[in-house]
Each structure stands twice: as structure tokens, then as C-alpha cells.
Amino acid sequence: MRRSRIRNAACRFLAPLLLLAACGLAAASDANAPRQYLDEQTGATVFFVSRPLVFAHERPGYGSDVPLSGPVPPNMSAAPRDYLTLAAAAVDRAGKYTYVLIGYFWSVGAPAQGENACSGREHLVLQLGDRRIELALFQGSARDAGISKPIHQPSTEAKPAVYSSDLATLGLIAESAHPTVYCGAEAAQLKYELLEDRLPSLRELVRHLSN
User: Fold this and answer.
1) How far apart are the first and last CA of the chain?
2) Domain boundaries, the chain
3) How far apart are CA 87 and CA 151, in angstroms?
4) Cα-only R_g, the chain
5) How many Cα atoms are found within 13 Å in the side-chain-facing hemisphere of 120?
6) Distance CA 47, CA 125 (A)
């Protein structure tokens, strides 16, 4: 009898905790669930990640005392940085799929100038562990690809650069431990490092498109 009462009390204590844990997992899953919409201008169905990947490049002379990721300490001003947002998307036109990565180059602080800036006109190179994948520019605009609405545009000034991809490449990126992006001339490539682990959103998109 005493063991039964203890067991019942333990169940009453654990049940709310298990419910909270389940709700937390559901919320996390919902946050990473892919988004989709019917583009009225192009007639295509567009699938895209709920959260894009964001990479950052530290400019020379900065970064020794400012963390690359996480909040900036209150006694420290944000250092000028250059960012790259990459949002994966798939466009369904009557059952024919096109896969792209939509990139936005943007800056915090004074914008970088000249050779030390990437504008989106360059090819990008993804470093995935010991594998390097070159992303070629899509021959046309985002609308030509079937996407007339901005997807995860960080600001109205940031113009999209569209890179061709495929489902296998998106899967490789999603499963990479820490993807890195390089842009610019090979002799002086700029390195953009992943700021935050949003890869689960990309994995969910790949999983959805693979089914």
C-alpha cells in the first residue's frame, strides 16, 4: 500500500514535467517546420526554411574583444561586421522542382568598401568539413526562379542574390557540423562563419521535400 502511494505521488509529480517537456519539443519542432505559400505572381508553390542561416565576417582590426556570436556586452559597442543570410527554398511548378539558396549581404556599422566587401555578385564556396561546394549564381532573378516575395530579407536595402542548388546539396549543408562560406577572389577570399545553429530548420525542409 505504501509503495502504491509513493508511486502515485511520483506520477502526479512527473506528469506535469513530462507535459512541459512534450510542449517544449512541439514548440521547437513548430519553430523549425518549413514554410510554404502559393506565389500569385508566378503561379508556383514556394517552400522555404523557417529560419535562415546567418554567417558573419569580422573586418580586419576588429573582433579581438567582441564575441562573434551571442549578445554584445553592455559596456562594449558592436563592432562593424559583414553578414550573409542564406535561405534555402524550393519552387514547385506543376511538379517540377527548382532548388535555390537566396543570399543577402548586409552590414552592421559603416559598410565595407572595395575588395573587402562581398556584394552577392560573386560565386560562393561552402566549406563542409573536408568538402568544398561552389554555389553558382542562378541565371536570373528570384522572380525568374518563381519567387516574387522576399524571403527572410534582413532589411529593405539588402538585395537578393540567388544561387542554384539541388536537394542533395541542401542535405549536405543541413548535416554539416559547422558550414563556412567563402566569397571573393580565390587569392583573397573572405571567410563568413556560422553565427547560430539554425541547421535544424534546414534539416526539416530537406526532410519535407524528400518525402
Assistant:
1) 51
2) 1-31, 33-210
3) 7
4) 21
5) 19
6) 24
